[in-house]
Amino acid sequence: MNNIVAFNIAVAEIFGQCYREFPIRVTISKMDVGIGIKEAMGDDPDGYFDLSEIEYQIAEEAMEWLIQAGYLWCKNPGRPISFEGVTLTP
């Protein structure tokens, strides 16, 4: 797996969710973003979710990076399974 490609997929998933609902704040699940990465990379999620798999780690790290870099606001940025109150920054 190419981490940069997976990161770009994660960012597209995250920004897509925020953009579709803007200005309403959304909840973003690292599980959903991880599944999006798996599907885009040609993997077929089998219904078993192991959040220690690389796709879910990349989803979480991408979300953290976007928050720390100032691209997103989040009401609970402390590495939860679901980030709540997420919106694009001005």
> Which quaternary structure do these chains form?
single chain
Going across the biggest sheet, name each strand in turn.
Answer: 1-3-2
Number of H/I helices? 3
Please state the average pLDDT score. Answer: 90
Radius of gyration: 12 Å
Helix proportion range: 40-55%
Low-confidence stretches: none
The string of secondary-structure elements, in order, is HEHHEE
Give a brief outline of the structure:
This protein is α+β, with helices and mostly antiparallel strands and 90 residues long. The protein is built from 3 helices and 3 strands.
Task: Please provide a written account of the structure.
The N and C termini lie far apart (33 Å). The chain is α+β, with helices and mostly antiparallel strands and 90 residues long. Strand 2 and strand 3 form a beta hairpin. Helix content is 50%, strand content 14%. It has a 3-stranded antiparallel beta sheet with strand order 1-3-2. It has 3 helices and 3 strands. The mean pLDDT is 90.
Keywords:
90 residues, alpha+beta, 3 helices
